[in-house]
Write a structure and sequence with these properties.
Layout (H helix, E strand, L loop, with lengths): L10 H15 L3 H21 L2 H7 L4 E9 L11 H7 L3 E8 L3 E7 L13 H18 L3 E7 L3 E8 L2 H13 L9 H11 L5 E6 L7 H10 L1 E8 L1 H4 L6 E5 L6 E5 L3 H24 L3 E6 L4 H12 L1
Parallel strand pairs: 3-4, 3-6, 6-7, 7-10
Antiparallel strand pairs: 1-2, 4-5, 8-9
Helix pairs in contact: 2-5, 2-6, 3-11, 5-6, 7-8
Length: 314
């Protein structure tokens, strides 16, 4: 399946792409800082008003640890009565426990060339950036660590998990400015790197369009050790060709070009079937790995999708 770049026959779409690329090329430090601040404000609003309880409930800590002993009140679980302390003071006392969180959240971010594509509202990269920012602040607000691995056909950047607002802002800045040396996708390499560098059980959000990526075997490996959630980001045109006559499409990762008749019903049908086949394969791979998979289109309300997922898990 080709990762599309709109060209030649549709001049308005081509101009739109060119304008977006020029804007990205001239981003100044001031522009980046402004975008980081905007994403922080938006993410904090979402996490405060929507995800405060849902995120915490969806991802459990390591267990429960003893915190203190207090007087027993009617309705307390009798199983937690501390009989030694109760005997000493001739009054019932109960043990109080608290959840051990100390979770590590990893964002595995695909920054290969195909994610620069988008025709409705956002490019796939833009949506991945927003979702990554929301997840980073959700983790930080729950006192969890957050780290990131950026990959294409190689590991482009590794950010070790840490706590705190400054660290979250650093990750958001890297999400905005991430540039790929490699154009293609090697998801297996990213998964192996994550597994090698993460010794404790962690939450891994794997964000990609999952196009032409091999990852079945290694996904099973980390699915058995970690809590893995896939976010398959796709564009409307990944699924359905526009009825625009003869157009040239380009694979952004290989540079291979091909002319197709986008108005041909059989071409449209085969194109859509290829997308659906990849969607089904992704579902099968994640299910067999014991992992979750969410499908998010670039014009979807991703906040609603994440919230429903968190509620379902909790």
């Amino acid at each position: 399946m080709f990762k599309k770049k709109r060209t030649i026959k549709n001049e308005s779409l081509f101009s739109q792409t060119s304008t977006q690329e020029m804007k990205e090329a001239v981003l100044t430090t001031e522009d980046i800082l402004r975008k980081v601040k905007e994403l922080e404000i938006k993410s904090k609003k979402i996490t405060t008003h929507l995800f405060t309880g849902e995120y915490h409930s969806a991802f459990k800590g390591k267990g429960m640890s003893f915190r203190e002993v207090r007087e027993y009140y009617a309705g307390d679980d009798v199983r937690f009565i501390d009989w030694n302390v109760s005997a000493r003071f001739s009054h019932p006392f109960t043990k109080v426990f608290e959840e051990e969180r100390e979770l590590a959240v990893f964002l595995l971010v695909d920054i290969s060339a195909s994610n620069m594509f988008g025709t409705v509202q956002n490019r796939k990269k833009d949506l991945i950036t927003e979702i990554g920012a929301v997840l980073a602040f959700s983790a930080i607000n729950n006192n969890d660590k957050v780290g990131a691995i950026f990959f294409s056909d190689k590991i482009e950047k590794y950010i070790a998990p840490k706590k705190g607002r400054k660290h979250a802002l650093y990750i958001v800045r890297e999400l905005l400015t991430a540039d790929n040396v490699g154009k293609a996708t090697n998801m297996e390499e990213a998964i192996k790197f994550f597994n090698k560098n993460c010794n404790q059980k962690s939450i891994a959000f794997l964000m990609s369009d999952f196009v032409d990526a091999e990852y079945k075997h290694d996904l099973k490996v980390i699915g058995g050790r970690h809590d893995v959630i896939g976010l398959r980001i796709y564009d409307k045109m990944d699924m359905q060709l526009p009825d625009a006559g003869l157009i040239e499409i380009e694979d952004l990762e290989t540079g291979k070009k091909q002319w197709i008749d986008s108005s041909d019903k059989m071409v449209q049908y085969n194109y859509q079937q290829q997308f659906l086949k990849q969607s089904e394969l992704s579902k099968i791979y994640f299910r067999k790995a014991g992992a979750d998979l969410l499908h998010v289109r670039t014009d979807d309300d991703y906040v609603k999708i994440l919230q429903q997922f968190f509620i379902k898990r909790s």
